[in-house]
Amino acid sequence: QDLQIPANLPPLTAPDIRMKAQLGFQSLRTRRGSMNTHNAAVHWNEDLILVAGEPLEDQLILLVEDRTGKDPMLLGHAVIPVAAIEQRLDERHVPSKWLPLEGGSGGGGVGPYSGRVHLRMCLEGGYHVLDEAAHLCSDYRPTAKQLWKPPIG
């Protein structure tokens, strides 16, 4: 990532940069990012798993925050429609992509550029999340229609 990290940190203080993902009422946060000594890039290498239901009308909101001080400072954010995320039905490799971050409140640079993050995102469609008691369930089919058994008759 080439995040715009604020320059007003106390001396010898490593920034506490975390990413937060929000989908509907769900919210997950990464641990403190590790700094690369060669180019000052922050990396997390964590999996954040959120549950999305059909129809896929929600938006995934990614926030990059600096939590070094008392109050978290937003470095940038990205909004991704869940319907635009690639769906994966097998164990193939998910391609990664760079997402530009939109304006944060505390970037050190001038202008709207806040940096970018390198992510790997996918919707795994082979699961069925039950919204009723398992012993009273009326639908045991997987979510992905490609995995349905053919009808009898």
UniProtKB/TrEMBL annotation:
Q: Which Pfam families match?
A: C2 (PF00168)
Membrane-spanning parts: none
What InterPro entries would the database entry show? Answer: C2_dom, C2_domain_sf, QUIRKY-like
Where the record annotates domain C2, the positions are: 13-101
Name of the protein: C2 domain-containing protein
